Structures are given as structure tokens and as C-alpha cells.
Structure of DNA repair protein RecN:
Amino acid sequence: MLKKLFIQNYAIIDEIEIDFSAKLNIITGETGAGKSILMGALSLILGDRADSSVLLDRAKKSVAEGTFETNGQKEIKAFLKEYDLDTEDELVIRREIAANGKSRAFVNDTPVNLEQLRQLSSLLVDLHRQFDTLDLGASDFQRDVLDALAGHGALLQQYRSLFTQWQHARHELDSLQQQKNQFTKEYDYNKFQYDELEEAALKENELEETDTTLKLLSNSEGIKSALTKVAYELNEGEQPMVQQLKSLCNQLQSFTGYHTDLPVLLQRLLSAQIELQDIADEVERINDHVQYDPQRIEQLNDRMAVGYKLLKKHGVKTTAELLAIKATLEEKLQAVLNIDEAILNKEKAVQQSLQEAQAIAKTISANRVKQIKPLQDKVNKLLAQVGMPNARLQVDAQQADVLQVHGIDVIEFLFDANKSNRFEPIRKVASGGELSRLMLCIKSLVAQSLDLGTLIFDEIDTGISGEAAKQVGIIMKDLAKKRQLISITHQPQIAGKADYHFFVYKQIKGDTIKTNIKLLSQEERITAIAKMLSGEKPTAAALENAREMVMN
């Protein structure tokens, strides 16, 4: 609900402040008084573009500010939370335009961009100008009307959840199928590489160990010759080293009692002799095991050739890396076998969620279809009341080939203004005035069900008068019981239904003409309406007629 509108330095408005009623607010005034300027300033708050030409005084900025009461509306709270704005029950939306044409927008003093302002204002205000098609011709709004009348919001929410689940499952299935196609393309190549590694049957660290063994065998003759010489010198030479040490120990043994250092020295010689004897034994043992084996060397060389070929092919340096590649290839080959099962399971999930969504979509569709005839009958009856006796609304509902986020229905509101039985989509054939009155009729039927913001009608009464205008006023009055409504009008029959009646007028201040607005008292309302009936100097009959309109 729009509680207050403040405008400063805009067009020919110096500064005005308007406090609106929560019900029916009517704005009247002579042509050119500035009613459209009010709508222009309000449009700034709603996110319209602006330039510096609107500044009355170019030395100051222009300001349009609206104070709104949100009444805990869920969509508004969600929007404020999404953009990290203060979630208060009262919102102050301000638009400022500088002399250079640049504008800034604020929500509760927090800067926002124009797109955010448009999104938020669309939740707060529903503005209908005479020449706007607005959302009446949009399929989303048309479908929302039937859904509001059907009252199946919980069913729609359940359907959308299933639809999202189905879409997600379809996406996962597509990904699996693309993955399988890629696997299939690579399968033969991966299989060839895996079989090659499998045939090689490499063991952990095999190539490194084989290389070490091959080096040993290739140098076995030289190693054996060196070991034989060492063993001979230690044990069997002309003066064997082990025997020499043993003799030295025996010579020193008999003198250990005569010098305190000799026992320690003797012990060291004995240790050296024992160590040297152990080395001699180890050399002989190793010598016995070192054998030159040409056949074994050939086998190992063949094995290394296979290994080097694989290392070079895969661009790696160790057996461990080759074994890791083999394991990866095995996983890829196994994945080809597993993915078919995964695809089968996902296909079942897709089909199940589709069937569940289709079942609910059919129920929703049936509910919508049930509302078509009552809607047509009620709207057509209201159209006759508002001065369009030959106009007819027809609702066309077709079922789409595939599920959509809103169900399976394609809804189109068709319109025939002249009983020609040639129904065409509203957006193509209805005039601005017809659209506005049609929108008024429809919204009066669904205002309680749809979470509408403040409804603003800008001169939707063009081309009507008398009884039709009276009926428009009655519908507005009834609609305003459920939603705040602001209407600019030239019709006294509509003005007579106001809860608050504002009058826009021009006044001369110094050498300039400026627009102002005031809330009329009951007597002022009667006079203003009488002037609307009979001219600047209302007759007694016009005043009496106006009094009856206001009092009735």
C-alpha cells in the first residue's frame, strides 16, 4: 500500500506531499492541471528512466519518494532478503535526479540499481495507463487469473517441485548419455592400451630391479675375478692377511701382563682379525653366487625392451607410473560397463517423475478449464456494465506437447469488441481504454486471490459517461475494499465513490505557474463534482446531483 508520495522540484511541481487512503483514492483536476505530471513522478519511483529536463530548478536535484506498507507480503520479503535490504514492514523508495541527468535510487536509504527498483516496484504497484497493454495480454497473467479462481496454489507448488525434479533428472540423464558416447569413442583405444599393459604383466618396481640385475650380470666376469683375487689374498696368498694378523696377536699375547696398554691393543688386533676373516668368508659366498648367464641376460634385455617401449609411449619414467596408467584405463573400461546400468536407472527415475508431474498437471488443467466459463460469464456481464455491451471475452485453453514449469496449458485471452464473432488475442485488437476497463473487470474478480499491490488506474474512463461511468465507480469501490486503489478520472460518477478525493490545480507564485494538490473536504468534493457535471459555475441542480453522488 502506498501511504505517502513526496515530490520535489519536478516539472512544474515545487513541492507536494500526498497521504493516501488505504481504500479508494480519486484524483481529479482540469485538463493540463498536472495530473499526468503526478504519474510521471510516480513512474520514477517505479523505475522509469529520467533526464534533467524534469528539473524545475536546475540548481537543485529532483526528488520523488514513496512510502509503502508491505503488510508482510512474502514476495517482497524474499526480494529484500535476496538483495540484502532491510526487511521492514515500511519501505521508503526514493529517486533523485541531478542537474546532469544522472539519477540514483534508494530503498530505505540503501542504493539500488534501476532493474532492482523495477522488480521491487512491480510487487508494490500495479499501474495501468490508458495506452498500456501491460500484463493483461501476457500469458503468465492470464494463466494466473485462472489459477487464482481455481484456488489450487498448493497443487501448483507440488507440481513445480516435481517439474524441477523431472528437469534435474533429465539433465543428469543427458549428461550420462553424453558421457557414454565419449566412453564409446575412446573404448577401443583404451582397450588396446590396457591389453598392452596387461600383456606386459609388470610387477611393482620390476623395471628398476631388472635394470639393477642386468647391470650385475653384464659385469659378472669382472666382479667374479675381483672377488676371487680378494679371497685369495685374504686366505691363501703367500702371506695371507688373516694369518698374518693371527700371528701378530700370538706374538703380543705373551707380553700383555707387562704393560697396561697391551691388553687393549691386543683386543683391537683380535677384532680386526675376526672382522677380516668375516669379510673373507662373505667374499667367497658372494663369489659362489655370481655367475655369468648369457641366456638370463638375453631374457632380461628383452624384458627391459618391453618396459622401455611402454615408458616412452606413455611419457613416464617408472614402473609405478605405468601401473597407475593401467589402473586408470581399467577404471575407464569398467565405467563403460557400469554406465549402461546407471543410464537405465536414471531413465526409470525420469519416467517416474514425468508420470507424477503429468498426473498433477492434468488435475491442474482440469481445474483451470472449470473456471473458464464462469470467468467469461462474469467478465462479459461486467463489460456490459462498464459501457462495453458488445464486447466479449473468450478464454482459449490448449494443451502443450510437453510439460512446462506452469503445467501443460497454453492460455490465451481472446477479445471481440463488436459482436463480430471474430475473437483475436487481446494484445492485438483491444484499444487502450478497452484494455483498462477489461483489466478492471478481471482484477475485481480475482483481487482477493491474487497478491496484488496498489492498483493505479490513469484515466481508464476515457470514452464512457453516465451509467457506464457509474458502474466503473461501483466496481472500483468494491475492489478498493480488498486492495488500495488510486485512480485519475474525469468522470463525476467515479469521483463520487472516493474515500479520499484529491484535487490537482495550478497556482501562480510570482512569475511562475506551479502545480499543487489538496485533499478535499466533503463540501469541497460536492463543489468539485458539480463543476465536473456542469462547468465552472455549477447550477443548483448540479450541486444537488453532486451531493447525492457523494452522500449515496
